[in-house]
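Here is the promised in-class demo. Please do not try to memorize the tokens; focus on the logic of going from shape to residues.
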């Protein structure tokens, strides 16, 4: 709200800014709530309700476009034969088979890229690649299955589409905060938006990202156990990843749980994973 008061020295009019307009903020908050509850889907394996608006077919199309671009950018570094590629494709096929009850029609592809990166990814549609820098840390097929199961889990759980929908909701709320602060002076507006940015980052975006990682760890553990890879390798793998990763920021500032958190989570989930392994692989009972 803008008030007008007489300037005693000049007799003119001086404009004075008002406070935060909560009514406008409430309108956008209601809109965000409607958006959230109208677009609920269920994550396979965990049963968690997620915000998601994109159709799986659209996700897979975006995944294919991104995958083709990545392969094109790395065409000189694609591994076209050899034991690493054979192992990655064998693991991939077995994990994809284990995920058949939640597969929305993925066009599974598995490739290896020569790179020092200790990483892997799986895009919507099942488009998967492993960087050779991961192989020494994985150490064995079970360790590689931990990582590949985790990445495939991100795609099966539609985490990318969920992040996009969450960002849309943040934009709706952010627009409400901005308009609500529109009647305040510039300094106050900046302070309000700064506080909103901090809350949005540390209270919403980062915790959700860590939740996605933990959820993918769990789903990946289930998938690798179903595929008859030893789930007991999961905490060992993350101990090696933690040792190779060096110093990391505090967990609350990170998009990922700390290696220590992940190791503990895997150990807590191990009885369930062993049960799944024994049921799926009767000739390899642990």
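The designed amino acids, position by position:
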């Amino acid at each position: 709200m803008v008030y007008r008061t007489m300037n005693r020295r000049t007799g003119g009019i001086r404009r004075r800014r008002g406070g935060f307009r909560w009514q406008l903020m409430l309108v956008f908050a209601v809109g965000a709530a409607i958006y959230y509850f109208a677009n609920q889907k269920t994550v396979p394996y965990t049963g968690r309700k997620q915000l998601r608006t994109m159709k799986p077919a659209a996700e897979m199309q975006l995944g294919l476009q991104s995958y083709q671009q990545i392969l094109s950018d790395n065409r000189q570094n694609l591994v076209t034969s050899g034991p690493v590629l054979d192992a990655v494709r064998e693991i991939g096929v077995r994990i994809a088979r284990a995920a058949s009850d939640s597969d929305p029609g993925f066009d599974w592809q598995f490739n290896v890229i020569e790179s020092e990166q200790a990483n892997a990814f799986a895009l919507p549609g099942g488009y998967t690649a492993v960087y050779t820098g991961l192989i020494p840390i994985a150490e064995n097929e079970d360790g590689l299955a931990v990582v590949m199961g985790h990445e495939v889990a991100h795609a099966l759980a539609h985490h990318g589409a969920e992040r996009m929908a969450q960002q849309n909701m943040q934009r709706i709320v952010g627009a409400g905060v901005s308009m609500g602060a529109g009647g305040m002076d510039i300094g106050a507006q900046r302070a309000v938006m700064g506080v909103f940015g901090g809350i949005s980052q540390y209270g919403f975006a980062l915790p959700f990202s860590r939740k996605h990682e933990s959820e993918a760890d769990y789903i990946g553990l289930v998938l690798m156990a179903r595929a008859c890879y030893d789930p007991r390798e999961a905490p060992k793998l993350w101990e090696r990843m933690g040792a190779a990763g060096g110093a990391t920021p505090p967990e609350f500032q990170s998009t990922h749980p700390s290696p220590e958190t992940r190791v503990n989570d895997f150990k807590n989930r191990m009885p369930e994973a062993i049960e799944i392994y024994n049921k799926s692989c009767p000739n390899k009972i642990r």
